Amino acid sequence: MAAVDAMPVPAPRGRMMLSGSRALGATLLLAPAVLFFLVVFIIPVGLMIRYSFYQQTTTGDLTATATLANYVRLASVDLYRTVVLTTLRVSLWTTVISLLLAYPLALVMVRGNALVGRALTVIVLAPLLINVVVRTYAWRVILANGDNGVLNWTLAHFGLGPVQILYTEWAIVIGSVHVFLPMMVLPLSAALGKINPSVEEAARTLGASSFDVFRRVTFPLSIPGLAVGCTLVFSLTASSFVTPALLGGNFAKMLGTLVEEQIMTVFDWPFGATIATLLTVIVMAVNLASVWLIERRFPSRASEGH
Amino acid sequence: MSEGGLGKGAVLLYAITGVITLFLLVPLLFPIALSFSDTPFVTFPPQGFTLQWYWKVINEPDFTTPFLFSVQLGLLSALCALLLGTPTAMGLVRYNFPGRGVIQGLVLSPLVFPMLVTGIALLRLFTSINSHSSLTNLVIGHTLVTVPYVIRTVSASLLLIDPSTEDAARTLGAGRWQTFWRVTRPQIVPGLFAGGIFAFVTSFDNYAISMWLADAENFPMPMAMFALISRMFDPGIAAIASLMILMSIVIVVVLERLTGLQRAMSV
Questions:
Q1: How would you write B15-51 as a 3-class SS string?
Q2: Which chain B residues are Cβ-neighbours of A166 within 8 angstroms?
Q3: What predicted TM-score, i.e. pTM, was given to this entire model?
């Protein structure tokens, strides 16, 4: 439950200009949080990004002049380029598979039997409260290589296998889909719930088949939810650590595991800051692309994205 | 709405949904099944039945110490998040002014910003200012990422009450604090409660911030479990996982009884 969509708090009506006493009230209430966020969030992130433009000398000090050397290193060294590409590939596959699984789930949640819908909501939400380490551990038990893994034991019974999935990109994709699927289902079911059933009814009355109704009416109207869901799943997968560390190990590294290694083991702060900045840029780019997509297709709904 | 809302494909759709539901739930059953196995190693299928692994882990300091530390960290972070988030929610809900949107975006931004990066930035900050108290650093970091949940749940509660009761109290001569404590607070208890539980759970489960700020004496539960996975090969690790799953189920039931899970998680 790292990030449920950042739903804006509705603004109160009127009172755009504050009188003296009210302005004091607002300042007293908001100043602590604004100060806190500036000091422990905005400024540190800014400093970290600045760090990525310097290099560390052997004594641990920073070089005097700014440089792009860290970024050049990240892009030119094969090992690091592989990690960047793995991260993008795993995040993309996780997003695509989550999307395919989330759609039927969200449709049944919103349109199906009320009792089933309620049960599904709990089934989708509840795992969000289970620690990600525990959920990932479950997948290690299932995917374990060798014959005491659940999957290989099952395959052996059918005379198949064994398969080696643990410590590959696919293990990370499977684990990430399991962990982040709710992040796709929730915005999608919210978007589907907003579609006026009479629009679909009208299409059907006019002779459209079920498939046509879905393709021409339901699906296009669900795009804002899809965009938010894809953004969340992609961002969360790209910046995850636990799942790639436990399921990918040393054989399938992602940016999250690489940055941990650079900062906690190699102590190369500037290079670590560079990887963190790249992660930030990827996440921001996906967010902006999603906002752009929603604005282009649904000018009136733009404010519902983020 | 009836099945009619799903059209002709309803049966197929229900079948697919059933399979996906199994995909979501069944993996969580394996650690539970393995935790009762009477074997020295985690192995599938489990053999025999024993509760010895549960007995072992609740007497195992590698489990109990981090567990109690995470409870302490979660309570401190939830308290700080409530103290910081409640006034912020009131400021955002009760006042409208230029720049309100910017402040709102700022205080909700930890929800969309990659948390791993937030953690790195915090470690950089604490190293630069020589702040070596791990507990303080962790509480600050966890407060930063839990306060948005409090702001959202408290805002939702504030929107439900009539601001004129507050205006009346002020007109009758009550101070700001008195008005809050005697008039506003009693009416937003559900929001404060849901926000507090959420902040606690988010802190208890947090990995992406803790991994940068923890040290050997201040070692939260998720990190301990991560470390034990590569060190503990007996079913004790499955027992720990099962206990964590049990704890989550209890929280789900409490939230569902209290406000309804869906409303508590503001979807």
A1: HHHHHHHHHHHHHHHHHHHHCCCCCCCCCCCCCCCCC
A2: none
A3: 0.89
Beta-carbon contacts of residue A284 (< 8 Å; ≥ 6 apart): none
- The verdict on A219 touching B (C-beta cutoff 8 Å) is no
Cβ contact A276–B244 (<8 Å):
no
Number of helices (H), then strands (E), in chain A: 15, 0
* H or E, element range at B6: none
Contact in structure between A101 and A177 (CB atoms under 8 Å): yes
What's the complex ipTM?
A: 0.89
The encoded tokens of residue B152 equal: 């959202």
Contact B141, B235 (CB under 8 A): no
Q: Of B195, B233, B235, nearest to B38 (Cα)? A: B235
- Residue A114: how many CB atoms within 10 A of its CB? 9
Dihedral, A226, A229, A231, A236 alpha carbons, nearest 10 = -160
Q: Give the CA dihedral B199, B201, B203, B208, nearest 10 degrees.
A: -120
Q: Which phi and psi angles does A56 have, rounded to 5°?
A: -95, 130
CA B156, CA B260: separation in Å to the nearest integer?
A: 14
Interchain CB distance below 8 Å, A112 and B97 = no
Nearest CA in chain B to A8: B104
> Which two tokens mark B86?
């409640």
What is residue A152's predicted lDDT score, i.e. its pLDDT? 87
Answer whether B150's CB lies under 8 Å from A36's CB: no
Per-residue pLDDT tens for A241-277? Answer: 999 999 998 889 999 999 999 999 998 999 999 999 9
Residue to substitute from B97, B131, B170, interface A, most A β-carbons within 10 A: B97
